[in-house]
Amino acid sequence: MKKVLVDTSIWSLALRKKEKTTSEIKIVEQFSGLVLDLDIILIGPIRQEILSGISDIKRFSELKQRLSIFGDFRIETHDYELAAEFYNECRRNGVQGSHIDFLICAVAANNNMSIMTLGKDFSNFKKHIKIKLEKIA
Questions:
Q1: What is the pLDDT of residue 83?
Q2: Given this structure, which CATH class describes domain 1-137?
């Protein structure tokens, strides 16, 4: 069974953005297919990012409820350690990224998952660390 760690950018597009372009609709359809096939992986730090910045309490509660059907994939010590290695390797090569982005990379790498993201940083990371990126529709 294929497992895909979905980054905040995709979740936000699917759950928060009201008006979507034709290409964004295709991405949301791809995301929806992964949901229906139960291939979606969510980690706590991504859940936090998705819910952050929503000042409307009702909207926050609704989104929190919608996300509640997805359990958090367990992050282990070796994931944090690999995230630090990834961070250091990319930094040595002049590539910067957030700690959460490198944690996403580490969890995916340690658990044979691909990453679905709209973030261009991940393509830069892939030049220096072993990660798999999900092809976007």
A1: 98
A2: alpha beta
